[in-house]
Structures are given as C-alpha cells and as structure tokens.
Amino acid sequence: MAEYQDSGSQMKTESIDLLDTLLIHRKMFLVLVLLGVLGAAAIFWTRVPIYKAEVTILPRGGASSTGLLGRLTGFSDILPQGDTNLEDLYGKIVISDAVLDSLSLREWSVGDPPEQGTLVRWLELDDENASREVQLLRTKRELRSEVIRFHRDFQTGFMVLTVSVPRYPRLARDLANGIADYLNRFNIEYRTKKSRDKRAFIEERLAHVDVALEQASARIADFRQKNRNFHSSPALQARHGELERELRAQETIWVELKRQYELVKIEENRETLTVDVLDRALLPLGPSGPGLIIFLIFGGIVGFIVALVVLGGRWLRQDIRQRMAGRERMVKDRA
Predict the structure, then answer these.
(1) Which residues constitute the domain of residue 85?
(2) Mean pLDDT in the chain?
(3) Does residue 183 or residue 172 have the better pLDDT?
(4) Pick from 72, 102, 100, 99: which is nearest to 87 by CA?
(5) Quick check: is 128 in a domain?
(6) φ, ψ dihedrals at 108, nearest 5°
(7) 2-17 burial by CB neighbour count: b if 16+ within 10 A, else e?
(8) What is the DSSP code string of 218-235?
(9) C-alpha span between 52 and 166 (Å, rounded)
C-alpha cells in the first residue's frame, strides 16, 4: 500500500515537474507555436493557387436505375453489349488523344490584358531542349493526371466535368466549357457520319434492288405474254408461282429499304442534341482548397505539438539526469 502511494506521489511530482518545465520555457513554447502559425501563413501565401471549374452534363433518354442519366441514344451503339456506363464512356472521350490534341494545340487567352498561348505555356511545361512532340506528350499526360476529372454525382445522377488549373481561373473556365462543347461536336459528328454511312449503304442496296425488281417484273410480264394459258399446265403454274414469289420478295426488300432510307434521312436532319449541358463553367471566384484561417489553425496545432515534443524531451532528459545523479549519491552513501 505504501509502494502504491509512493508511486502515485511520484507520478504527481513528475506531472508538476513537467508543468514547471513548460512554465519556465513558456517563451520557447509560444515561439514554437507562433513559428507554426507563421509557417502555415507562408505556405498559404507562397503556394500555387489551383482554380477549379465544373460543368454539369445530363444525357437525354429518360431516367434509369443509375439516376437521371438514362441511355444516351447517340452513343448507345458504340458501348459494349449490355453496358450503359456513360461515365466510363464520357471519361474516355474527354481524355482521348483526339480531344487532348485539340486542347493542347489550341491558343488560349489568359490574363488581363489577355495573352495568347498554348497549354504548354500556361501549364508551365515548356522546355527549350524538348521537341514539340515531347512537349505535346507531357501536356497530354498532365491533362490526364492532374487537370481533367470526369465523374458522376451519385446523389443527382448528373455527370460532372471538373477542370483544375494552376494560377489561371479564366483558363479553368474556358477549358471546361471547351471540353463540354467538344462532347457535343463529337456526338453530332459521330451521329452524322453514322447516318451518312448508313444512307450510302441503303442507297447502294436500293439501286441493286431496283434493278432486281425491274428484272423480276420483266420476267413475269414476259412469261405471261408468252404463256397466256399457263393455268392449264401444272408445270407452267409452278414456274409462274416461282416468278411471283421472286417479285414479291424483291418488292418486300425494296419497301423495307425505302422505309429505312426515310428514317435515316429524318435522323440525319434532326437537330436535337443528345447531350445537355445543364450548367456551364463559371469563372472561379477563388482558389480551391482550405482558406487562410484553416491554414493558421493547422499551423498552430502543429506548432503546439512540436513545442510539447521539444519541451517534453527537455524535461525527460533533465529527469533522467536527476535520477542518475540520485543513484550515484545513493551508491556513494552506501559506500
């Protein structure tokens, strides 16, 4: 029981000693906390600001089990069978070489007064020793890894395109809107090309079927002209039936091709887009990330922890020395 009391009193004494150490070195404690705050402020003011711009996109086609995305009619045929993951499809389109080449080679207006330059300049990737091809590859790698992000908001089901650009808020806005515009152009061009190719194929087939239909009509007319009494002969009736079936088959093919041709013409001339930009990107009001107050609080916490570690280390070192000195005195007294 006495040992327990001695241990408790010893712990209490050590706590008092630690508190005394903090009070004695309170100036150092406050200096370390202040250094943490000042360091956080310096990091905040010297960091490269990152500006983010977002575009919200909704494909038409009705609601689905994945939210309001539905099925994108313009792209559904290039998706794998049974796959309606438009997030992956759009994500691949916006970071494709065709899109990134167009973005990288384009001149972008930045600053006030505005200056023209490519992304190699504005993303600070220019290198005098690197060839244009190498700089283009670096720019596309930077766009894929750091600048462009495409995801789906699971609460609303909307597609969100986020562009993060250092230093230049106007570039972030223009890049985001440019990518959204490219999605629309890609959709229109793809659907137009698909319709044009389908129409050319149907026109070619119609030309062949027209010839076959004329030939079938001519054959049955010639047969009837030469065999006016074919009803009296089973063999001639059978031949007449074959010619009629051939004519009906060609007529059926012609009618179906004509129907498909009219549908393709309607689709080709339709101006309704299948990609809706609900909210275009606006000019970012400020850089993304935590503000100055958060930085200062975090710096103060770090400085506080560092101060505790430093002063605690001093107290521990002093305590060890005192214990060793006490043991040495005890040894001398026993001797």
Answers:
(1) 50-279
(2) 76
(3) 172
(4) 72
(5) yes
(6) -115, 140
(7) eeeeeeeeeeeeeeee
(8) HHHHHHHHH-TTGGG-HH
(9) 9
Q: What is the pLDDT of residues 257-286, one digit of tens each?
A: 889 888 887 777 665 455 677 888 888 887
Report residue 287: phi and psi, to 5°. -70, 155
Q: What is the mean pLDDT of residues 5-10?
A: 45
The answer to whether position 272 is within a domain reads: yes
Residue with tokens 């200062």: 296
Judge contact between 74 and 274, C-beta under 8 A: yes
Between CA 302 and CA 294 the distance in angstroms is: 12
d(CA 242, CA 234): 12
Interacting residues of 243 by C-beta distance below 8 A, sequence separation 6+: 216, 219, 220, 223
- Please name the residue that has the structure tokens 């935590």: 290
Torsional sign, CA 218, 221, 226, 231: positive
User: 203-262 pLDDT, tens per residue?
Assistant: 888 889 888 889 888 888 888 888 888 788 888 888 888 888 998 998 899 999 889 888
Residue type for position 288? S
- 155 has a pLDDT exceeding 70: yes
**Can you say whether residue 262 is alpha, beta or left, with left for phi > 0 and alpha for psi between -120 and 50 degrees?**
alpha
Residue 112 is assigned to a structural domain of this protein:
yes
Distance CA 14, CA 249 (A): 104
How many domains would you assign to the chain? 1
Confidence at 15, pLDDT banded by 50, 70, 90: low
Cβ burial, residue 176 (10 Å; 0-12/13-18/19+): buried
Cα–Cα distance between 210 and 203 in angstroms, integer? 10
Chain segment 49-95, per-residue pLDDT in tens: 888 898 888 755 443 433 333 334 444 444 444 444 666 777 788 88
In a domain, 320, yes or no: no
Cα 299–300–303 angle (5° rounding)?
85
Q: How far is Cα of residue 8 from the mean position of the Cα atoms in its chain?
A: 60
39 against 333, higher pLDDT? 39
